[in-house]
Amino acid sequence: MLVVADGNGSYGSSSRMSSNINLNKNKDSSVSISKMDLIIPFSPEVPCDNNGQRMWWAFLASSMVTFFGGLFIILLWRTLKYLWTVCCHCNIKNKEAQKVNNPMNSQADGPTKNQNDKEDVPVSEVGWMTSVKDWAGVMISAQTLTGRVLVVLVFALSIGALGIYFIDSSDPIESCQNFYKDFTLQIDMAFNVFFLLYFGLRFIAANDKLWFWLEVNSVVDFFTVPPVFVSVYLNRSWLGLRFLRALRLIQFSEILQFLNILKTSNSIKLVNLCSIFISTWLTAAGFIHLVENSGDPWENFQNSQPLSYWECVYLLMVTMSTVGYGDVYARTTLGRLFMVFFILGGLAMFASYVPEIIELIGNRKKYGGSYSAVNGRKHIVVCGHITLESVSNFLKDFLHKDRDDVNVEIVFLHNISPNLELEALFKRHFTQVEFYQGSVLNPHDLARVKIESADACLILANKYCADPDAEDASNIMRVISIKNYHPKIRIITQMLQYHNKAHLLNIPSWNWKEGDDAICLAELKAGFIAQSCLAQGLSTMLANLFSMRSYIKIEEDTWQKYYLEGVANEMYTEYLSSAFVGLSFPTVCELCYVKLKLLLIAIEYKSEQRESSILINPGNHVKMQEGTLGFFIASDAKEVKRAFFYCKACHDDITDPKRIKKCGCKRMTYSKMSVYKRMKLACCFDCGRSEHDCSCMSGSVHSNMDSLQRAFPLSSVSVHDCSTSLRAFEDEHPSTLSPKKKQRNGGMRNSPNCSPKMTRHDPLLIPGNEQIENMDTSVKRYDSTGMFHWCPSNDIEKAILTRSEASMTVLSGHVVVCIFGDVTSALVGLRNLVMPLRASNFHYHELKPIVFVGSLDYLKREWETLHNFPKVSILPGTPLSRADLRAVNINLCDMCVILSANQSNIDDASLQDKECILATLNIKSMQFDDSIGILQANSQGFTPPGMDRSSPDNSPVHGLVRQTSITTGSNIPIITELVNDSNVQFLDQDDDDDPDTELYLTQPFACGTAFAISVLDSLMSATYFNDNILTLIRTLVTGGATPELEGLLAEENALRGGYSTPQTLANRDRCRVAQLALYDGPFADLGDGGCYGDLFCKALKTYNMLCFGIYRLRDAHLSTPGQCTKRYVITNPPYEFELVPTDLIFCLMQFDHNAGQSRVSLSHSSHSSHSSSKKSSSVHIPATNRQNRSSKAREARDKQNATRMNRMGPEKRWFTDEAENAYPRNIQIKPMSTHMANQVNQYKSTSSLIPPIREVEDEC
């Protein structure tokens, strides 16, 4: 604004226009102009007032007239309506009074009057007004798309009008403007025309016109819209009250809610506070800018000061905050009066709003964002029990360097923000790990982590919770929520209790065939411990195989060196090269071990119905198919690639396995070759010659191609070993291969699993299986799936033994389970411990009796799941009572298991295992008498199946007998379950383990005497990378649990007995884990300085036994007379690894159909009086004692080895002289306890021929 106060014109500093007022320079400067003659800037081109008079009152009057005029009309309308209503009400009362006075007339005229009344009602008029009102309400409401668009558009235009005000605030308050040339004025006019139309819609839709007229938005329109039309008429602009458009910012939160941007209460509240604060601030600054640049009207606007709009914004802020620097202040009376009242409200608003805004911003979730997916990179969501321990264990295994490049991002979702330690862990892995705060039970949080595009969702469980059932229920609810949001997502969840797995089957979208898996920790823990009862140390070996461990190199020749070399091995999967197609499993297994330095233990096999199943060491009857998936034990994922890259043409002469890499030649596609070609290639592979030079394929094969094609279809399901299948032709056309060549390459006639007449998986073709038809089909010996031994339900009273009854039973070769628990303890699931020990691939007489020692109240709760298993007894008592332990002959047991159900009820982590530790130390400190050593030494329970003591000395297999007796508890085989890993230091008092040492590096764990549930954490990542891994480990440790069996258990919670059928009996034909001793038997010649690789090949070729580890005495490398009886695990030793006589070999053995046959058939034997089958728990005293052989003298061992080498020929003839159609003989070695082979001096040699008659099972 430009104001002339004297001869010298004083111009506002903010004016951008020049004045064309011609003043006489000759006049005295003291001449003043009338105070009312105010000059405004103008241009000759603008038809503005030549006198420069201000007309701000016209703009203000337009707004005031509009507001008060409309208000007057509304009040007048309401007054008239009220008077009309009162008058009508009086007329109605008068008519009713007349009806009362003249009832006859009212009755006569009633129908006519009612009809006339109906005609008087303006139905059409009311309907039209209502429809218009409804239409206007729909247009301005946010319930429809049109309404939302209109509301958002009005808000956006209001902000645009506010922006134009900011631009015009740099001009004078009032100036001449040409509407046709001023672009900003044209835009502002268009905006206000739209606001006028929107005001009309709002007025029509309003129910209460008076309150609508007084609304804030209406007041804003009154003081901003009319002045624009006045400015067009007068060709001048007045900044005026256009700053009121800033009040529209109050609706900002509503607009964001309409757009679904704001969804939480905190965000809505935060935006509300900020919008109210900013809009009030900007509006007040606009009023100060108006009055300070205009001045007071009663002072003829002479006390104005040039202030920019942003200086006024600064002034209001320092005023609200009570700082008040004084550099900018109000000079006008209106400005100061406004500041007096504003400082009261502004200070209150600043003191209340600003702290609340800061609190809301500070309380916002630090990890409350959303995950942004990266193209070409998968991500998984991990939720559940997120703590420093669980996350560190998971990441250590998931991101291990031995895996291939893990191009997977891990997104953690938890409703509690991480602590500092966990946050530091996330920052260390920031390239692959992200954390978001939220809950999987909230669909909004699931959307934030992009669960619909995630590769899988992993749910971790709290293994140390006080209520396992509640924890499982929480995880099941998480699964339900995730599956409800996205049914196709793959879920891998941890479960604590086995019986809670049944609830997952109730979820419609749960499908284990699509990759959904439930890792039941109680089931696997009990399975690992049960397998240790059959082969001590196996729990440690399996736990190390399924965990990713880095290789730690030790130069010193200690037991830790060999143990850690085995720890570096893990389980991997890889597809087999097409060079293996058509070969038998043992052939491929031997080639992989010798040539590729890989240990193949299982394959994924597809049947003719294309159903996949995992076969562990299946034997000669299974041939490799195209694209067969193999399960390998190796130290690195890159090593396993050799099995995929192997090519016989390119890599046959390579001795260094590291040089086996992808070759450029085109491998033959076996699946498209003829049967003749496939068999010929397979045969040439066995004999080691090229296809053209090989004479394995005789001429008669060509002439009988049609019959061969009928016998061998293209599917490799029923394809036999080529050397076996072509025997009929080799009889007429002898092969040029030497017997040694055949023996070395696995193609010999007397291979145990080669039979030209039948396939093992057809039970009707098994020799001796014709007795199935003669079996008593009314007796149920196995469950309905044929996987486990079964007996009718036993009452718990019949299974209870008193202390005296247990002492008189003279138990031996049994399993003692010491269990701590009471009525309130959580169930540990003892059925999962018993089931592997009652697998049907054991013969009935091989089953180890199981004796539970613990609280009867607790065992009654578990008995419902145990009453269908044979040979299970209960001794009520406590594992801390030595009298109870002596009553069950704990010194004669094959394994003592110590469990506790009370571990989760203690807050102190170091006291969680106190009962198990005390029981372990109690047993180790016990002393025993040697008075029953004779009974123990001759008990049938310690004779491996198929190896009777009455076998002659020239038999190729010699029996195994444990040491004469145990006199100290430290030699009793024990496995103790621990909850807290650090408590392992208390189990062995003679070790030097540091408390901070990882569990797998401690001596008790390496020896297989301690097991902690924490080792199962690695199964989460292992299952994610390969869902077959969990199936393999469950097959290994559970004894044959299947999804079908889980469905049956979910229905009845108990095993259901079934009649024996060829199909169910065929399920018994599966391998199992055992331990093979080297001090005697067919492998004794390799036990003294032999190579492990030679043992591996001999066991695989001769007996189809797959060796995969050694259980060695801890001090075997010292060769001291007083060796320690503790053993440790060596996983997958190299080929040249040297063996010692005391070693026990872990092996996967085939099921022996003949091992359990009645010894009565051996009537030709001179020792037939001792050949009857007995249970493990029975005690047998032989009629004559055999003379013990001394193994201490080196000369005696050399003589024995020389004698054995001389018997090599008779050994072979012992197999080859049998009838060709006889069932293949498999040597069965019984799983042994640890102390069975600790002292070579105290063993007795017994052996037996394997009876050729099918087993007749004992009654339950």
UniProtKB/TrEMBL annotation:
Listed Gene3D superfamilies: 1.10.287.70, NAD(P)-binding Rossmann-like Domain
Annotated InterPro entries: Ion_trans_dom, K_chnl_BK_asu, K_chnl_Slo-like, NAD(P)-bd_dom_sf, RCK_N, Slowpoke-like_C
GO (cellular component) term, any one: postsynaptic membrane
Gene that this sequence comes from: LOC113112952
Comp. bias intervals (Basic and acidic residues): 1192-1201
Gene Ontology MF: a single term: metal ion binding
Residues annotated as domain RCK N-terminal: 377-519, 812-956
Transmembrane segment boundaries: 55-77, 149-167, 187-205, 270-291, 307-325, 337-355
Protein name in the entry: BK channel
Localization per Swiss-Prot or TrEMBL: Cell membrane
Similarity annotation: Belongs to the potassium channel family. Calcium-activated (TC 1.A.1.3) subfamily. KCa1.1/KCNMA1 sub-subfamily.
Lineage, uppermost ranks: Eukaryota, Metazoa, Chordata, Craniata, Vertebrata
Alphabetically ordered keywords of this record: Calcium, Cell membrane, Ion channel, Ion transport, Magnesium, Membrane, Metal-binding, Potassium, Potassium channel, Potassium transport, Transmembrane, Transmembrane helix, Transport, Voltage-gated channel
Membrane topology per record: Multi-pass membrane protein
Database matches in PANTHER family: CALCIUM-ACTIVATED POTASSIUM CHANNEL ALPHA CHAIN, CALCIUM-ACTIVATED POTASSIUM CHANNEL SUBUNIT ALPHA-1-RELATED
Organism listed in the record: Carassius auratus (Goldfish)
Ranges where the record places region Disordered: 730-760, 1160-1207
Any Pfam family matching the protein: Slo-like_RCK
Main localization of the protein described in the UniProt heading: membrane
Extent of Low complexity compositional bias: 1160-1180
Residues spanning the signal sequence: none
PROSITE patterns according to UniProt: RCK_N
